[in-house]
């Protein structure tokens, strides 16, 4: 997720130095196998720091136990935030990896390439969380393996709640409760905000609104895919942001990636922030006395969003596709997955991983972590359609216009719907 993004816990600001990756690309035989029968798999993972350390250790273990497959985990020479551009350039040049770490929101566009493998008959995803399965399914076919799963919840500062005499949030709370709580927490004299929201119009700005849309009965697009599905309910969702703005309880972050938003929270000057498990290490490092609650809703029923990432396989020959699939099946097996989750700072990909004693011990020792896992039961994902990025851009502009008081929710939504419907009218 480039500026610091929503997964900074897995990626530092530094960009990986380009490792020997391109040289391993392409077919070494008609089916991708070498003359010695060993299949070399080029993995572009884009991870740095803790994430890189975790994936490197797993790759080394796989190579030791699978002598006929050699995974080269050079990383790709870029962070995961820049992976789409790197892979797209590689596809255009005819030199691309066997596996790449691709964000779920980019997968549909990526599958336009015939080089993206179809894994429908090769993998079994029944134990994965619904959000993880949906994120790798494009037009009814499995086009990648889940790599990371997360969820949005509300992390709150207990000290600020106590100072304001406000009870901490509990499951089942509503957006009206959230607004009232944010207002009570706000203290202009001390520079304390009730909550915050990214205000640059990027995907970090947008994806937080979708649970509100879904809870109101709307969707990203209509059932037939010809129009947006939030034209009837978008005004109410945007109106919630407008109420927070007019109450002056909302900090609007002007920088990409929520950098200042989290700095304000970590500095003890924000009562609540909607975020994911990737933020907990920083909260813990700061020594904040915090808690975690599920997202509020209009209905009082649990609902959140997940933004899964994927391991996308590319066709450099049948032997390479088979070997890549074998590696990913091993990597996402609960015994390996739980190590990746704990060491890399992620959530379990499957219900089986979440049930392992190792994960339960880890979750018990980290305040609020299990709330994020439990939220996966009701998490939804953005649709895997090629038009999504353009629709997101339009909604991002609408959200920013409301956050800055430049447009009313009704006017902002009207413009967004008109532009988005024009986008959907053009065949993809």
TrEMBL record:
Annotated SUPFAM superfamilies: Periplasmic binding protein-like II
Q: Which Pfam families match?
A: SBP_bac_1
InterPro entries in UniProt? Bact_solute-bd_prot1, SBP, TAT_signal, TAT_signal_bac_arc
Protein name listed in UniProt: Carbohydrate ABC transporter substrate-binding protein (CUT1 family)
Tell me the lineage of the source organism. Answer: Bacteria, Bacillati, Actinomycetota, Actinomycetes, Propionibacteriales
